[in-house]
Design brief:
5% of the residues lie in helices and 39% in strands. It has 247 residues and is mainly beta. The strands form four sheets. It has a six-stranded mixed beta sheet with strand order 1-2-8-9-10-11, with no helix packed on it. It has one helix and 17 strands. The longest helix is centred in the N-terminal third of the chain and has 13 residues.
Length: 247
């Protein structure tokens, strides 16, 4: 019964991925120099944020972050000066975008009072709707386009880790795979041949990096089953679009 309920909920979620969350937010775009996506997208509430969009090393010398620029990468971009609620005065935080050490883009926040980082996330897109939560998406340091939620406790941001991550990848098999009815992969459900259309619905949260990840997969007939997916560092092996750590 638990499996059936989970499957129904996940199928419902897969039908919602085309909807735009937080349509009331404004969007800042910066050119993506690290991948196929055209832009890095920053969605924010104009009532809570002021656009800066300036590299750290090009800030005016009188700016409070200029003195701390040696603590960060010089090409990092200060995107927004912001607060998380309308009762905060003044804007006490900054959102910064970094290209990463090896083109692994991500976002992090700086406390304007201490000029120290208070946490962040890899990603190509970020939503800052106000309140204590932010959301990021991006196929970075993950085997799929990972949607993440972070909560701010007043001191730092920490990820709110779900039991399942939504994948929503409509793709095909590159090699035959076996689906199982259970997460323990004990009872066979279906054998899928090469070049078979599938949708990877979700991934089980795990601290392991590669073949330990379990995916919930939907067949053309609508069957739902679990499988691990063989992968390498540079290419998909069994399912097109699933890569080791997103590289």
């Amino acid at each position: 019964m638990k499996y059936i309920i989970t499957a129904i909920l996940l199928l419902g979620l897969s039908n919602l991925h085309a909807q735009q969350p937080y349509p009331n937010l404004s969007t800042l775009k910066i050119e993506n120099l690290c991948g196929d996506e055209s832009y890095i997208l920053i969605h924010y509430d104009e009532a809570l944020a002021k656009v800066i969009n300036t590299q750290l090393n090009k800030l005016p010398m009188i700016h409070q972050l200029y003195a701390s620029s040696d603590q960060h990468e010089e090409n990092d971009i200060v995107l927004l000066e912001l607060k998380f609620t309308t009762t905060e005065l003044p804007n006490n935080y900054y959102l910064v975008f970094s290209w990463g050490m090896s083109c692994d883009p991500g976002f992090y926040f700086i406390d304007g009072k201490t000029n120290k980082s208070i946490g962040g996330s890899p990603g190509l897109e970020i939503y800052i709707p106000g309140g204590n939560s932010i959301y990021t998406t991006g196929h970075l340091n993950s085997t799929f386009n990972k949607r993440r939620k972070y909560s701010f406790d007043g001191t730092e941001f920490n990820e709110v880790e779900p039991e399942f991550y939504y994948v929503g990848l409509e793709t095909k098999t590159l090699k035959p795979i076996t689906l199982y009815t259970d997460e323990e992969l004990t009872t066979k459900l279906a054998y899928l041949p090469e070049n078979y259309n599938v949708e990877v619905i979700a991934a089980k949260r795990t601290n392991d990096y590669s073949s330990k990840i379990k995916y919930l997969i939907k067949t053309e007939l609508g069957l739902l089953g679990w499988s691990t997916i063989e992968i390498t560092a540079f290419e998909s092996i069994q399912i097109e679009g699933i890569y080791f750590m997103g590289d």
